[in-house]
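User: Sulfatase N-terminal domain-containing protein, Methylobacterium dankookense:
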Amino acid sequence: MAFLSGFLPALAAALAVSAAIERFGGAARAPFGLGPRDLGLRLGAYTLLTLFWFVFSWRPWLAGLSTVLTVAGLVLVSRMKRHVIGEPLVFSDFALLPQVPRHPQLYYIPPVTSPVIAGPALVGFLAVAGWYALEPSLLPHGAGPALAAMLGLPAALVTLVAAAQRPPLASRVARRFPRPDLERDIGRLGLPATLMAYWLRRRAEGPANPPAAARSTAPGDPVVILIQLESFVDPERLGGQPLPLMELIRTRAAEYGRLRVPAHGAYTMRSEHAVLTGRDADSLGFGVYDPYLAAGGDEPTSLARLARVAGYETAFVHPFHRDFFQRAQVMQRFGFERLVMEEAFADAPRIGPYVSDVALGRRILDEVRSRRGPLFLFSVTMENHGPWKPGRLPGIDDPLAQYLHHVAGTGRMVEELVAGLAGEQATLCVFGDHAPSLPTCRPGFGGTATDYALFRFGDPDAGPPRRIDLTADALGRRLRATVGAEAAAPAPASPAQA
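Assistant: Predicted structure for Sulfatase N-terminal domain-containing protein:
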């Protein structure tokens, strides 16, 4: 009774304040769930958070405060993320956290050594230490009971998590969350409950069933080059000057248009996965938020695997770290035999912090000229990766001006590739992975559409350029024909759009 009288008031206060934070803090756009089951799941998630923090201190009010701060932090981060890329916090975001200290320059956050981060962290640590000293512990008296409690509560939480991944609890979670519906679930149940439930659902899902393998018995075009252009959209859509590349695309590309990608301003891996596999979002289940977590590149129908079956050499060219997004491991599982990554560009010129797109394009042409047979090459550019911060380019501090400077380099790279491939029988496809996360380009800009172009060289029967707007996965399915796989049905030409 003494334990309950000490713990329950702190728990009740934590539940009430956490619910108020989510109700009035703008964590979701959907209505706040008031049904008994919805409230039960919401409060149950807060209770689990409180028990988790209680394990570390056995001080109920400290655990309650930790829960409130956790919920407030989640809501704040979710709001910031929504403002920048139009999507709330998702469970898969936590898998990306190890990248932040390794590659802090890729994120809009200061390093941990910055006073902005280190100062509040130190103050928080000292406040917790002081509270820890002032609030009495609820641990039972005596070494035996205290040890049993310290081991028993964590064991109970671990057992609950394990049980939630097996029937009958897993079946109840699946019935409650049959498919991803992020906005609705956060509104009904709260952010902590949704994060926990989606993680459990992803864990419970086996590998999603891939589409049936397409026939691939002989090479298509001897050279197939697919390039994912970092943050690429037609700069005129952002108020920039006309890019010569866009006129080249409209007059020389076999197909071009807007490409509807799975996210705005981030999540490169979603577009990458969609194009390389041709799989739509509905086939990925709860792995839709980070397809690399779902399958890690183990995709029997990826373009690289189809190309290898057809006799192509497969190469992945990317002038950045092998560990970022676990790209080296993922690309090997996708079916790329040879990886050309950051170490191969040690002497390449840089524009800002990253290898220039023009240098990357010239390395791609070198790969084409030195090939020993049919070649399928996938490349990911890096020059125009955000964030666009002051000091990135000499004399250019405005983020949009920096972006436009880099996108001009992207244009020159593609122009050089078009000129360099003119004597080949080849296909070149370029596409933007997502719109840039700029202050002048927030969610809602053009939906989630980037731009793409498909060039065909050495085809005397090629017709005039056609405007065809596609989704990223549809582009991936159309590209199957270029490596000799069974082609998807042709898409109708789209009417001209602004």
